[in-house]
Amino acid sequence: MGSAAGEVNAGSAVTVDDRLQVGTVGIAYRRISPGGIDSRHSSGNSPVIVMLHEGLGSITQWRDLPEVLARRCGLEIIAYDRSGYGRSDPVPETYSDGFMEREATEMLPAVLDELGVRRPILVGHSDGASISLIAAGSGSVVPLGVAVIAPHSFIEDICIEGIRAIDGQRGQVISGLARHHDHPRLAFERWRDVWLTPRFRHWDIRPLLERIDCPVLVLQGEGDQYGTEAQVSTIVQSAPNASGHLLADCGHVAHRDQPERIADYLADFVSGCAAAAS
Q1: Which pTM does this prediction carry?
Q2: pLDDT tens by residue, 22-47
Q3: Which among 24, 20, 42 is positioned nearest to 87, based on CA atoms?
Q4: Where does 64-115 show beta strands of DSSP type E?
Q5: Residue 92 and residue 21: Cα distance in Å, rounded?
Q6: Burial (0-12, 13-18, 19+ Cβ within 10 Å), 117
Q7: How many C-alpha atoms does 233 have within 13 Å on its Cβ side?
Q8: Strand pairing partners for 219?
Q9: Are strands 120-125 and 76-80 parallel, antiparallel or unpaired?
Q10: DSSP state at residue 154
Q11: How many whole angstroms separate alpha carbon 78 and alpha carbon 179?
Q12: Residue 14, Cα to own-chain centre: how many angstroms?
């Protein structure tokens, strides 16, 4: 792990942008620490909120949610760019069917180990939500809790239709991604290609859900263009300690459409997990 690329003191919180090396892949990450804690190192004993972005997401696309959670929960936050996204290295250049499983069982544990995080609370959006569920269900990570926004536990027609629709606007989408990603075309095409592969229609993580014994929170917008209420009900009915909420006037990017409500739900959930762990 190299020295900090940038450190900003925002009130009582310290934000550090840095990179770490996982195998051949350089991973960009941001660590936000409340109360002046050294944001580059963790004791390993305190809970840490770890945020996993969506399929076309990045650290910066979380907007101000990490800072809000750090202030409200009094916990350290780690958000990182998966390979090929944001400022992280673009390896591999193509995805195969098990890309989320590999992220959950190989890359995420390696990132947590490098950063000394032993008691994570996972917060994931879309693909990042699915990766969080896989990690908890497979046992590759033992989180104190898992909060997921717009998760996928199986493939629905609406998801494929939504991706085909966005592919029709790929020029505009890639242009927008360029504000957040070093390799926007690669990020888009790699994501699109795997999701639209016919055999990927069989992707399904529902058997893992019943193995998740930590608290689980599921949040989804009623207007989500990539998933239906079935995603919420499936997880709530399958995971032993799960609860879920559908949000009105809200689409797939819930932390953009309903930022206050998302922050409220997450802060309450995270605080509860941290209190139970103590």
Answers
A1: 0.93
A2: 999 999 999 999 875 554 444 568 99
A3: 20
A4: 76-80
A5: 15
A6: buried
A7: 5
A8: 149, 245
A9: unpaired
A10: B
A11: 21
A12: 21
Apex CA 252: angle with CA 248 and CA 254, to 5°? 60
Whether the CB-CB separation of 104 and 111 falls below 8 Å is answered with no
Whole-number pLDDT of residue 278: 85
Tracing tokens 């945020």 back to the chain, one arrives at 51
β-bridge pairing 25-34 and 13-22? antiparallel
Report which of 252, 233, 251 is spatially closest to residue 243, judged by C-alpha positions.
233
Structure tokens at 107: 């890359």
Average the pLDDT over 216-235 and give the result: 98
* pLDDT computed for residue 163 by the predictor: 97
φ, ψ for residue 155, nearest 5 deg: -90, 125
Q: Side chain identity at 65, as an amino acid letter?
A: L
C-alpha to C-alpha distance for 53 and 171, rounded to whole angstroms: 22
Amino acid identity of 219? L
Q: In the structure encoding, which two tokens stand for residue 93, read together?
A: 């250049």
What would the two tokens of residue 92 be? 């591999």
For residue 200, the 8-state DSSP code is G
